[in-house]
Design brief:
Elements lengths: L1 E10 L5 E5 L2 E5 L7 E9 L3 E11 L25 H19 L22 E7 L6 H4 L10 E5 L7 E3 L10 H14 L14 E8 L5 E7 L6 H11 L5 E6 L13 E5 L3 E5 L9 E5 L9 H15 L6 E5 L5 H6 L5 E6 L2 H13 L5 E5 L2 H4 L2 H7 L4 E4 L8 H10 L3 E6 L2 H11 L3 E9 L9 E8 L2
Parallel strand pairs: 3-5, 10-11, 15-16, 15-18, 16-17, 18-19
Antiparallel strand pairs: 1-2, 1-4, 2-3, 4-5, 6-7, 6-9, 7-8, 9-10, 11-12, 13-14, 19-21, 20-21
């Protein structure tokens, strides 16, 4: 069923645009608020519809030309056809609506969103998938020999677990990322190496992961199903062709899933890590170095990460004598960043390998006032733990997308630190948690930060202060 001349009114969740059909919300991907489109309904739900634009009758002034030829296929940049200033507007709006509708905060103080300094080549990590189920484009379908090559190295097609878009140029990561990926594909094709089949769990090549740093490091990780004779020649070929790779690993993954963090990372060539540098929070301080291993977490936009941590530290307003708890500390980036300006930082993180990274990063930076604990935050953060480590003056929390565990919120309310600095990659769950604390804390201000241009994602930092 097709509905004609539907005006797109808003930009909604998951990068979808929003219109109305007979007073019922319809979600449509890859269009822009202000477009007038004909919509074919693809899914009917009780409270909403889903559809796709089959014809654009008039174009919104908020539109721009998408710069990537794969726009609309790989799903990674759903807002790429929206002007950047308009993207920022809708991200700011997302934070406001989350805090007011979910958080029930009246007139929240939300500072203007901090734009990304770069809107292309801003990512420091990409994960490409080898697949023998290539997604066929319209051009492929019109080609007589379309069935001749079914292999792909690129990104998954949304909602198709087994389909991969064959990517030749991606604007997410600086060169030589594109050249490395294309060379890996060419070598595999020239030598008849098998690409993975997720339906049958067969095939030699599985993933190619690239990581880089502003300091100049470049890491490559080749993931294969089994150790075969083809492995070392392929690694040697890529290492020889790209001396820019300073750290080269391979991983053997025989499992029926893509998780590799429970597997051994084998160093083939170069350093065991790459290094990112970060300026100090205050002038005259020491520049920090962070070692990033193959399993380490680091904010995906390095330049914006510097701004994110700076704002979090400014919100905390350290005087120098505070005991700080850093919940969901990851590899201790925030903990080590603020440690020189406080008495002590206690970090908690569920991933043991991340805690080891955090301790290493403290050591190489000469930081001795951090203490890290591995375990789920809701299990570690108990009255006994707090009695042993001390009652925090400030809590910094940076949970995953699903927000803080309810037990963690309850413990925070029992401890009642003077300030809470809440860093979130999901304003909706952040607003939910803030609402749970609103009887004891005031939301002083929030600062949205754009970490991922051309996507709907927005980071938000909120400062809460204790009432009374």
């Amino acid at each position: 069923m097709i509905f004609e001349s539907i005006e797109i009114l808003d930009a909604g969740a998951e990068g979808m645009a929003v219109g109305k059909i007979n007073e019922k919300i319809v979600f449509v991907p890859f269009v822009v608020p202000g477009d007038v489109v004909d919509v074919q309904i693809t899914r009917k739900k009780k409270k909403f519809l889903e559809g796709k634009a089959v014809n654009i009758r008039s174009f919104s002034p908020k539109r721009t030309e998408a710069h990537c030829s794969y726009f609309g296929l790989c799903g990674g940049c759903r807002w790429q056809n929206m002007k950047y200033e308009e993207q920022l507007f809708y991200k700011q709006k997302q934070v406001f609506e989350s805090l007011t509708r979910i958080g029930k905060i009246e007139n929240p103080v939300i500072l203007p969103i901090l734009p990304s300094a770069s809107t292309r080549y801003y990512r420091n990590k990409l994960d490409f998938t080898f697949s023998n189920h290539r997604w066929l484009t319209d051009e492929d379908r019109n080609t007589e020999n379309r069935a001749g090559n079914t292999n792909a190295l690129g990104f998954h097609v949304p909602q198709f677990f087994d389909k991969v878009v064959d990517i030749h140029e991606c604007f997410h990561m600086k060169d030589p990322a594109n050249a490395i990926r294309n060379a890996a594909r060419k070598y595999a094709m020239d030598h008849d190496l098998t690409f993975y089949d997720v339906r049958t769990w067969n095939g030699f090549l599985r993933n190619l992961i690239l990581r880089n740093t502003e300091a100049g490091g470049l890491m490559a990780i080749l993931v294969v199903k089994s150790r075969e004779d083809h492995l070392i020649p392929m690694l040697e070929h890529l290492a020889g062709q790209f001396p820019e790779i300073t750290s080269f690993y391979y991983v053997i993954n025989p499992k029926q899933n893509d998780t590799i963090y429970d597997l051994e990372f084998n160093l083939f060539k170069g350093d065991p890590y790459i290094t990112e540098k970060m300026p100090p929070f205050k002038p005259g301080g020491r520049e920090l170095e962070f070692r990033i291993g193959p399993a380490s977490f680091f904010q995906t936009n390095s330049l914006q990460a510097i701004q994110l941590y700076r704002i979090a530290a400014e919100f905390a307003g350290f005087s120098g004598g505070e005991l700080v708890y850093d919940l969901y500390t990851g590899t201790g980036t925030i903990a080590n960043y603020v440690a020189p300006y406080v008495r002590k930082v206690v970090g908690i993180e569920s991933v043991a390998a991340a805690i080891r990274d955090a301790e290493i990063n403290s050591s190489i930076n000469g930081i001795s006032n951090t203490l890290f604990f591995a375990g789920e935050t809701e299990k570690i953060l108990t009255p006994e733990f707090i009695a042993a480590q001390g009652t925090p003056d400030i809590i910094i929390t940076d949970p995953p997308r699903n927000g803080m565990h309810e037990k963690v919120v309850r413990t925070i309310l029992e401890v009642q630190p003077e300030k809470i600095v809440y860093v979130s990659c999901n304003p909706a769950t952040q607003a939910r948690d803030i609402n749970l604390m609103c009887n004891h804390y005031n939301l002083e201000k929030s600062q949205p930060v754009d970490m991922f241009p051309h996507t709907q994602h927005v980071e938000n930092i909120s400062l809460l202060t204790r009432k009374g």
